[in-house]
Design a protein that fits this description.
Elements: E1 5-12, E2 16-23, E3 29-30, E4 37-44, H1 47-62, E5 69-74, E6 81-88
Antiparallel strand pairs: 1-2, 2-3, 4-6, 5-6
Length: 89
């Protein structure tokens, strides 16, 4: 028995375009779920070093190549800089 695959393109949460394949049988539906909201934090010896680390950590966690929102602050202990990144993948 051959099953017909239908390609659907839908907007996911108004932020990204996802592609889903729906089997001809209504009981067998497969969709791709978006990663959603992701946050990460990192430390570094300079502001640029901490920024690179936190963006790479966020991208790995989100499975995305986007650049997230981020903020860094000098904390004066340990490595010295702390950065946080957040956003939707």
């Amino acid at each position: 028995m051959k099953l017909k695959l239908v390609k659907l393109i839908g907007l996911c949460a108004g932020l990204c375009l996802s592609t889903s394949y729906v089997n001809a049988k209504p009981s067998e539906t497969h969709t791709i779920k978006p990663a959603g909201y992701v946050s990460a934090s990192a430390f570094g010896y300079s502001e640029s070093n901490a920024t690179q680390i936190v963006i790479a950590a966020w991208q790995k966690k989100a499975g995305s190549s986007k650049i997230p929102f981020y903020r860094c602050q000098y904390i004066g202990v340990g490595p010295g800089w702390q950065c946080r990144a957040w956003g939707y993948a």
